[in-house]
Amino acid sequence: MSMTWTVAQLAAQLDAEVEGAGDAVVSRLAALDEAQAGDLSFLTSSRYAAQMASTAATAVIVGRDWSGPSPARALLRVADPNKACAEAAQFFAPPPPKRLPGIHPTAVIAADARLGEGVHVGPWCVIEARARIGDQTVIEAQCFIGEDVAIGSHGHLYPQVSIRERVRIGDRFIAHCGAVVGSDGFGYTVTPQPGALPRVAKIPQTGTVVIGHDVEIGANATIDRARFGETRIGNHVKIDNLVQIGHNVRIGDCSGVIAQAGIAGSTRIGAGVMIWAQAGLSGHLTVGNGAQVGPQAGVARDVPDGQYVIGSPAASMREMAAVTLAPRQIVKLRSRLAELEARLAALEGTSGT
């Protein structure tokens, strides 16, 4: 695919209205403050209006109702600039590496493992007994797939992904480098010993992990197997880099967990939930459908459907606003009290004379 486009050609692909020079040529996508002549840029938020006014970009993707100064030769007006930018990025990106069907000679594959049509297995992979890999799935270098694992079709495991024994995964699964699915959950018994350190014994983690369709897991994210039963990740769930999901956690469909968040064991996450970066959720909680957990929030109690909680300990936006505003209210009350005391003193002085 050509990486040079006229504005008019892009408009046809993006369902955009052209304002300005439709014959202008662009060959790269760049941010407003980094763009040069010949670049396409984008405005997705009014906070970047100042950059828009000074950008060197030849053309800029904007919303249909955006108005403001721009030196760009052309504007592409679209209904959703974020969506259009994501689509445009593909027009300028180099093609991804092709992983052709086949098995690298260094891969170690059990005799009774079953691989579907068109599967790619890269160098130094290990696929253990009775594992099943669906059609057109790509398994890149140094991946480990344990006994009795089932992975659906059209998946992609990037290098050094580990899928432990008995894990079951749906179609179109993506796992980025270093992701681990099915490692043991954190569980120990602690027995006091008179006059000595306590005895710590590991609790066997005998369950598994079940992952739905169209799930993506970021680099070095970990999903622990259940103590017993299943840790379950629903369909269309997106998990960012460096996320930790504990044993027996359940995450509903179309939810997202952002980088460095941690969810402790047996917590239930509803559908359509967003857990933002570095949030921490205690175990055995319920987070309702459509709820959001704000960045760095510390959640120690259930979150109702649709509620947005922030802070540590996490509270609703209304509760947090009340707490945040309280000091300001106290300052106002002190000022008002001082004013009233002054007025009272003046009145007492007047009555005394």
Annotation keywords:
353 residues; alpha/beta; Udp-n-acetylmuramoylalanyl-d-glutamate--2,6- Diaminopimelate Ligase, Chain: A, domain 1; UDP N-Acetylglucosamine Acyltransferase, domain 1; 2 domains; 12-stranded mixed sheet; 10-stranded parallel sheet; 4 helices; flat
Structure description:
The chain has 353 residues and is α/β, with parallel strands linked by helices. The protein folds into two domains: 5-92, MurE/MurF, N-terminal domain (Udp-n-acetylmuramoylalanyl-d-glutamate--2,6- Diaminopimelate Ligase, Chain: A, domain 1); 102-287, UDP N-Acetylglucosamine Acyltransferase, domain 1. The protein is built from four helices and 40 strands. The strands form six sheets. A twelve-stranded mixed sheet has the order 8-11-14-17-20-25-28-31-34-37-39-40. The longest helix has 36 residues, at 317-352. The N and C termini lie far apart (95 Å). The mean pLDDT is 94.
- Per CATH, which architecture of the largest domain? 3 Solenoid
CATH-defined fold name of the largest domain = UDP N-Acetylglucosamine Acyltransferase, domain 1
> How large is the count of helical segments?
4
- Distance from N terminus to C terminus (CA atoms, Å) equals 95 Å
Instruction: Indicate how many domains the architecture comprises.
Output: 2
Q: Unreliable segments (pLDDT under 50, ≥5 consecutive)?
A: none
Radius of gyration: 28 Å
CATH class of the largest domain: Mainly Beta
CATH evolutionary superfamily of the largest domain: Hexapeptide repeat proteins
| Class per helix and strand makeup | alpha/beta
Question: DSSP strand (E) fraction?
Answer: 25-35%
Largest sheet, in brief, is: 12 strands, mixed
Average pLDDT for all residues: 94
